[in-house]
Amino acid sequence: MTDRPPLPYDFMPTVPSFDLRSDDVADGQMMTDNQVYNGFGMTGKNMSPALSWSGFPAETRGFAVTCFDPDAPTGSGFWHWVLLDIPVSVTSLPPGAGHASGSGLPAGAMHLRNDYGSKDFGGAAPPAGDPPHRYVFAVHALDVPSLELEPDATPALAGFNLRFRAIARALLIPVYGH
Fold first, then answer.
1. How many domains does one find in the chain?
2. Which class for 12: exposed (0-12), middle (13-18), buried (19 or more C-beta within 10 A)?
3. In this predicted structure, what is the pLDDT of residue 119?
4. 80: left (phi over 0), alpha (psi -120 to 50) or beta
5. Structural domain of residue 58, as residue ranges?
6. How far apart are CA 133 and CA 156, in angstroms?
């Protein structure tokens, strides 16, 4: 796909980057069934990848983690994961931290509803035959410990607040298609 939609962060002020790593996903590489949705005709494990980050600004007061598919055939992309209010002392998430039970989340962190309609990580499920979609995992370093959003807030509202509160952002962009 040569005429790919832009990334959501192309429309936001430029901020410094920092290091984001994963043993489960890699830039430009195909994700495994672990990160594929279990539904919509897919039979994946719907497990969020392990993520770890470092090198963020000393002024960081908290983090948010998001996953967005800009290639989804919706006209507005597709939010797979919105995790807010991660304490500044937390610099990694284990595999499966995005489970709906919340058992893998750091104390105080919360999921917002993704575009599947659930409060968890929702894996990849692009239409069969589409070129591989990009899944933009972002860790946002924030100048506040919490965005102070209600649990019913939308991903768009989170994105609006992240635009004004992110002081740095790290991206990891694996792909998936079938």
1. 1
2. middle
3. 97
4. alpha
5. 32-176
6. 20
Question: Which H/E stretch holds residue 141?
Answer: strand 136-142
Helix or strand holding residue 137 (H, E): strand 136-142
- Provide the token pair at 97: 């931290």
Q: Sign (positive/negative) of CA torsion 149, 63, 139, 112?
A: negative
* CATH number of the domain that residue 70 is part of: 3.90.280.10
29-60 in b/e burial notation, b at 16+ Cβ within 10 A?
A: eebeebbbbeeeebebebbbbbbebeebeeeb
Q: Output the DSSP codes for 85-128.
A: EEETT--EE-TTTT-TT-TTSPTT-EEPP-TTSSSS---B-PPT
Per the CB < 8 A criterion, the answer to whether 158 and 148 are in contact is no
Using a cut of 0.70, tell me whether the model's pTM lies above it: yes
Per-residue pLDDT for 2 more than 90?
Answer: no
Kindly report, residue by residue over 107-145, the tens digit of the pLDDT: 999 999 999 999 999 999 999 999 999 999 999 999 999
Instruction: Name the residue among 150, 122, 158, 160 with its Cα closest to residue 31.
Output: 122
Phi, psi of 165 (to 5 degrees): -110, -15
Tell me what pLDDT residue 19 has.
98
Domain assignment of residue 71, yes or no: yes
Q: At 78, which helix (H) or strand (E)?
A: strand 78-87
In a domain, 24, yes or no: no
